[in-house]
Structure prediction request, 534 residues.
Amino acid sequence: MVAGCFRNLLRQWFRDERCGLTFRHVILVAVALSCAACKPSTETSNGSTPRTEDIKANDAGLSAAVEHEIKSFCGDCHLMPNPASFPKSAWRDEVRRGFEFYYTSGRTDLKIPKQSDVTQYFVSRAPEKFDVREVEPLDNEWISKYEKQEISIPDVRAPATSHVAVVDLGLPLGKGILFSDMAAGGVYFSSITTQQRASDKLIKLGQFSNPAGIQVVDLNEDGLQDLVVSELGSFLPEDHQRGKVIALIQSKEKPGLFQQHVLVEGIGRVASVESADFNRDGLTDLLVAEFGWRTTGSVFILRREKGDSDLGSWKKEIIDPRQGSIHLPVFDFNQDGFPDYVSLISQHHEKLDLMLNDGKGAFRRVSIFEAPCPSYGSSGIKLRDVNRDGRMDIVYSNGDSFDSFVLKPFHGVKWFENVGDEKFVEHQVGYLPGVHRALPGDLDGDGDLEMVGGSFVPQQLLPQLAEQGAESIVVFKPTSEGKYKKHVLSKGDCIHAAIELQDINGDGKDDLIIGNFCDTEHPGAALTIWYSRP
Prediction:
């Protein structure tokens, strides 16, 4: 019955132009704002930002006063949009959605221009179409380096894998692959066998409504690893109070069995949770990315009260009131002993910030990157010392296309180099339309970090992309010149919403664990594992 409901939901989800959020690695898809476009850039249309220098504005027939009114309205809560961020054919719907967003925001302080004038303004200045990036062929030499294994969930034909990670849960479970299905609701574990392969026999650790990210932590300090699950509360994007943070506490009497404890409920859609002792009181705190949607969402900390033995007493503190938080990875960047975190906020914010912990309960925001486009499509981040200089860097991807169903030539992967003194330098790795997750890893054992990107796009685009041979899994390998060369492992099947890179078979090279988001017309496995060959 769950699978049947999921089929109907999936069809509706991919058809419904209102949808914006799936899960942003965990489940996240940004709402497109009508006035979501990019600020002017000197780069080419195939660069990381679009340009308008080569686009001649047609006479929109609007007075200077009307154009001033449009700019005041559309540029109030973010930069004035650049029409080059969408082709002409997309702007009518973008403007309509933006007006809907304003009305649902509850604001009444702006002078509202005519919707038809706003549409005319942007359409007259937009390009006819985007330049299409040349598709690279499959790299058979790289493909030959791997053998594949598929892992399916019994009785689930169309899995929606929203999270995947290699973890060690201690005996009797040991090391294995932990993953969640945001549609059918299960959280599963595949043990890594003595043959150094993932077991086809899955262990179901818990059942939820729509699980997203999962954090592994000994929450009650009993020496056993527990799980903290981010519960969306709905498959489709909407504003509601059904989100939850739920702990799966491993039994002390029967290790390997888990019992659910709801830590907080009555909140918006939760994308991910991180754990750390932020105030150094000896108790584990939880940092929550409540993605929400249009009117719900924030970043908050759950602080465990002292003397709380049953995990039932948590204090909620709002850190950031913005909607659209995706990932909040934790690291002590200034080495003062207090954990900091990096914040990726999507929606119309599209910002990457370093949040420095002052040790007194507050965080100081340092801006790392503000996307040149409110519909840039931020989809995830990962912390890693990419250049091995002892400083923690940030790998970033932008390829979310579920807001407008438009794949953009500036979708791709970057990394931000930590150069010290709270400063970061942006490096473009490469481009991959629809990239939903990108992670660094050493795939060939040479000590350098490659970047692996997986694309995930709306169902209605899949036939066209399959016919075009669109890239779906790619490896970006660093070159001696400091750039990256793209190697294509898979094409056409742009359904890869979650990725993990870990050495499963013990050969010193990271293997690829790919999470798949299938539909009933194209059923498939929940996971595809690419093992490196000797």
Notes: The first strand starts at residue 146 and ends at 151. The chain is about 10% helix and 35% strand.
